[in-house]
Batch of 2 targets.
Target 1
Amino acid sequence: MRHAAADPAAIGEAMEAIILAGGLGTRLRSRVPNLPKAMAPIAGRPFLEYLLDQLIEAGCARAILSVGFMREAIVDAVGDQYRGLPVDYAIEESPLGTGGAIRLALGRVREPAALVLNGDTYLEADYAAMSAFHAAEGRPMTMAVTHVDDTARFGGVLLSDRRVMGLVEKGRTGPGWINAGAYVMARDFPWPAGLGEQFSFETQVMVPLLDRILPAAFPCTGTFLDIGVPEEFDRAQELLTR
């Protein structure tokens, strides 16, 4: 299911985006021993540039990079702008987990909602259309989902009427929909009570909150890559071009 392209100016607010680029990248050390995952070289370019290019194409007005491990490599390479796109930073002084990193970065967002991307995942998607879809659905969060031949490595999602109704644990084989690693989230997202500074978005937020927030589901049918594992990193060299 493809969505019609959206005019960012028609969404009603400037698009802001968060890229989670603070991970340790332990699974990728055999390929990229001395760089953070987001700076891994793909077809001669840092992977992060492909994500920033997507944001520019979507009409993004401002990007926030959530950085931690080896952050100097990212800050030195990108600085405060990329191809005219203003760039700000949310700095993890110690690892915060996916949830802590998102919450920290959302604290720097100016608009009512922001696109959130994983710094090791490439998804061929119309992010302007996804942002417009989120605004129309009126949910605290929209999740990009994509269909794969085997959900075992990712875990699945159960969909009904443009909503994420359930999560399937990793290990179950067979085709299905999966979380594609891109969200639009409200700046005032309703975080569960009792969270510390470091927590997992997937297990400590999505699992307990799912029935309450019923995220909107935005299906994507284009290329999906998780370069955090060596085989996908190698595949990206062939699929992504300059």
Note: The first strand starts at residue 16 and ends at 21.
Target 2
Amino acid sequence: MTSAALYRQTEMDRTTWPEFRDQVQAFVAAEAVSRPRSYPGYPNWPLERCRPRLWPALEPTLWSRRSAMKLTADLPPRRQLSRLLQFSHGVSGGFHRGPTPSAGGLQALELFLVNFTDGWLPPGLYHYGRSEHCLAQIVAGAERDAWGAMAPSLNLLAGGALLWVVVGDSARVAEKYGERGLRFLILEAGHLMQNLCLMSQRLGYSTVPLGGFFERDIAHAFLLPPDDVVLNAGACGRAV
């Protein structure tokens, strides 16, 4: 079956619309509340709360954004990484809303990262807690060669201190949107990666989205639950 055929399995038409509409309405009537994921009991690194800056304007950031093929391996300072995460995917409003558009306000994306560099943040695999604005260490240690084997496109770049991993909680959207919810997660993953790209550029770094990675290997490495889907990945460092 072609990729287009698989995608069309969740297309909507006049015959499927009533069932989809009724499922959404039933979910809304139940007043379900979606909460960001957290990892209590895991090693935790609090991040700094940052205020929005008024300058520079958005246009220069958009105009100058590029995917650099050579990146430094220096870990961003705590203040810089705090700002990058907060304004890319932090909670900034009621019902855990933030900068990333979310279907139905379900906030079904989780942001993970791999840190390869020793510094104020030890090497390892981390989850970004949106509500707590912190990094929880899921696994200690991270070998670049091992991750290059799981994400072959990472080997096309030189350097890079961090690897972003965008994960969708399919169970969270399926309850409201059924199988079509996966389409929304894919769209949201692109929104979040764009936020990471723009905030990286804004702070003097470069995020390079990657297309070649082994989803199940990455899910296993992060100890993800079965309903989670790995949707997007990107390397981050200062452009050389």
Note: The chain has one domain: 44-237.
